[in-house]
Amino acid sequence: MIFINFIIYLLSFFIMVPIIATVIVYIIVLKLSRSSKKAVHIAVNWSTIFYIISTIILIQYLFNTSITGFILIFMLFVLAVIIFYQWKANVDIEIKKAFKILWKICFLLFFILYVTFSIIGIIMEIV
């Protein structure tokens, strides 16, 4: 029971402060693989979900509205655009590659949104 509570608290912490999760994963992979490029890729892949969830929670807290459905629809739309581009470029449609591209786009987008809404939240609490 104590171990389960520890895991729940750890995941909650990483959701609220995903930058720490990114740094921790990066450091661990860097120590194990000695490859900075590989460490960045793995840290991005493992921490993207924390940025997505944390951005949803921040928006819900700041603006008292839920956007989970909009985010899912947006992600499906971006995936469709990526697959359409693969098709139009006369490249074999690779779903796995499309998901990787989507995941990297989501990391960049939600990282920027997380930082932006964190700053907005701090400003709103001060004012």
What can you see in these coordinates?
This protein has 127 residues and is mostly helical. The chain has one domain (2-126). It has helices at 2-16, 18-33, 36-63, 68-88, 95-126. The radius of gyration is 17 Å and the shape is globular. The model has no long low-confidence stretch (mean pLDDT 92).
Q: Tell me the Rg in angstroms.
A: 17 Å
* Total domain modules: 1
**Terminal-residue CA separation:** 42 Å
Strand content: under 5%
Structural class: mainly alpha
Q: Percentage of helical residues?
A: over 70%
Q: Total strand count, please? A: 0
Profile the largest sheet. Answer: none
What is the H/E order?
A: HHHHH
Shape: globular
Mean pLDDT: 92
List the total number of helices.
Answer: 5
Low-confidence segments, ≥5 residues, pLDDT <50?
none
In short:
The chain has helices spanning 2-16, 18-33, 36-63, 68-88, 95-126. It is mainly alpha-helical. The relative contact order is 0.10.
Secondary structure layout:
Elements: H1 2-16, H2 18-33, H3 36-63, H4 68-88, H5 95-126
Helix pairs in contact: 1-2, 2-3, 3-5, 4-5
Features:
5 helices; mainly alpha; globular; single chain; 127 residues
